[in-house]
């Protein structure tokens, strides 16, 4: 096949992180920083909730070491940095009448300035660690009428304060995790187990996203000129075989994982398969809600890690539309090598299929905002051995090749790629054990050491992106 051009010259590439996973430098430092408590502080203090007892307030000390981290990203050759802003760090109690923590403002101002000084386009996400005070006041995401105005005010504050320099915004990261892991299976904060709450939580996240995004589009974009969207987790669902039942089941799995959020935003309705299964437990959109949702995401933000084979055989997993998720194929082979985590296998061709599905169904430019790999036992290796992260290099080789085919052969409009993650970090309920970083973190000293995959990934993009931008002005 003839390929005429590579990645566009303004393609953004680098690494992603999330505030709660990397900022903490210890209890004292967090106290001194003025950050309010989030539901993750409370969750970490619940015995047994985090495998190794890690507390979110002591992770990678990015709070103190962000300059070093940004300098390292630059030296590796990245041209962008995708980070998140912590709501309780900016507004400790979270609410629309609550005071601002100036130390939080100074931190993110400095971080953004440091990005620009180093030629990195800042790409900011404003969600994840919900202020505990809002959970105590009204149950957080369970109370749509209360949280929508609180979240919108927080968003407004971010645009007013940082929008002169940040031109790429994400409202939410992976609302599926907040709904299902947080309120359905109880694995993430706030640790609820329910088959009713997730659908309510997701609905209020969707509406909060829409109000926050419309505020930007209508009132800030005209002068600030950036763009805004949501980012969803979603892995490709490959039908186990070509029987009509399994093809239909795979679509149902895509509906429950991605369509749940993306169909309302881009197509104006919940997927029919969800309506059929959930009945009255799935909230209905009002006319006003549909209007604010319409055109509320200017692009499709994609976090993806793996692929599953999907069978129609009925499972008890309602969050997967009662499908059976597997990795095997009819001939008994598996679709890709395993990682340290049961859900994660290396299936590069799944990425190209996923990107084509998303582009065709939602008709938006795509920003790839997370993609990465975990190596078993990496934490117990000496640092000089952990940096030989062959399995991660192999994963990134396959996935970047698949991305290249999606861009060069399928001609999809894909505008960024961020490896997950910049550095080993707090892997939520799994603690510090499973490592996803392309940079090694020594959790005693906080010392950083780049692994082979960091060089591989940045070299790939340096070679394939038409021309480097030179100045990171965010456009
Ligand atoms: C990303 O989610 C997160 O955004 C990031 O914070 C995290 O560090 C990274 O993954 C690595 O895990 O345990 O079998 O129930 C990716 C989407 C959805 C993948 C939930 C894992 C749990 C499967 N994730 N899923 S299971």
From TrEMBL:
GO biological process, one term: carbohydrate metabolic process
Keywords, ordered alphabetically: Glycosidase, Hydrolase
Gene Ontology MF, one: beta-glucosidase activity
SUPFAM superfamilies: (Trans)glycosidases
Family annotation (Pfam families): Glyco_hydro_1
Entry's family note: Belongs to the glycosyl hydrolase 1 family.
Protein name per the record: Beta-glucosidase
Protein's organism: Kwoniella newhampshirensis
């Amino acid at each position: 096949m003839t390929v005429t051009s590579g990645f566009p010259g303004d393609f953004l590439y680098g690494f992603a992180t999330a505030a709660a996973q990397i900022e903490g430098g210890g209890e004292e430092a967090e106290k001194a920083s003025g950050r309010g408590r989030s539901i993750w502080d409370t969750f970490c203090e619940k015995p047994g909730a985090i495998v190794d007892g890690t507390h979110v307030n002591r992770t990678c000390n990015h709070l103190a070491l962000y300059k070093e981290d940004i300098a390292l990203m630059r030296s590796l050759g990245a041209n962008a940095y995708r980070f998140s802003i912590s709501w309780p760090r900016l507004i400790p109690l979270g609410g629309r009448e609550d005071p601002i923590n100036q130390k939080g403002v100074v931190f993110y101002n400095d971080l953004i300035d440091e990005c620009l000084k180093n030629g990195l386009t800042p790409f900011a996400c404003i969600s994840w660690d919900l202020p505990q005070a809002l959970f105590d006041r009204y149950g957080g995401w369970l109370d749509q009428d209360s949280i929508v105005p609180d979240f919108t005010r927080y968003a407004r504050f971010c645009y007013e304060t940082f929008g002169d320099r940040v031109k790429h915004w994400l409202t939410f990261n992976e609302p599926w995790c907040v709904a299902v892991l947080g309120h359905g299976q109880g694995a993430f904060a706030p640790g609820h187990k329910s088959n009713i709450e997730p659908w309510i939580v997701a609905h209020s996240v969707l509406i909060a996203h829409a109000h926050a995004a419309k505020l930007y589009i209508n009132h800030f974009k005209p002068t600030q000129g950036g763009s805004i969207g949501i980012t969803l987790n979603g892995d490709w669902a490959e039908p186990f075989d070509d029987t009509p039942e399994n093809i239909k089941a795979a679509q149902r799995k895509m509906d429950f994982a991605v369509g749940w959020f993306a169909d309302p935003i881009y197509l104006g309705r919940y997927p029919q398969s969800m309506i059929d299964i959930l009945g009255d437990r799935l909230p209905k959109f009002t006319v006003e809600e549909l209007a604010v949702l319409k055109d509320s995401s200017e692009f499709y933000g994609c976090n993806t890690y793996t692929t599953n084979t999907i069978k129609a055989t009925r499972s008890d997993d309602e969050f997967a539309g009662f499908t059976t998720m597997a990795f095997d194929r009819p001939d008994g082979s598996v679709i890709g090598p395993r990682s340290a985590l049961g859900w994660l296998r290396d299936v590069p061709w799944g990425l190209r299929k996923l990107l084509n599905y998303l582009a065709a169904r939602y008709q938006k430019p795509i920003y790839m905002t997370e993609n990465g790999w975990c190596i078993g036992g990496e934490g117990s290796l000496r640092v000089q051995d952990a940096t030989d992260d062959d399995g991660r290099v192999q994963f990134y080789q396959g996935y970047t090749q698949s991305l290249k085919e999606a861009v060069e052969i399928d001609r999809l409009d894909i505008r960024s790629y961020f490896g997950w993650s910049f550095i080993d970090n707090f892997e939520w309920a799994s603690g510090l054990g499973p490592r996803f970083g392309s940079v090694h973190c020594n959790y005693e000293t906080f010392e950083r050491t780049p692994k082979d995959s960091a060089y591989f990934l940045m070299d790939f993009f340096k070679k394939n992106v038409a021309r480097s931008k030179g100045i990171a002005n965010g456009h």
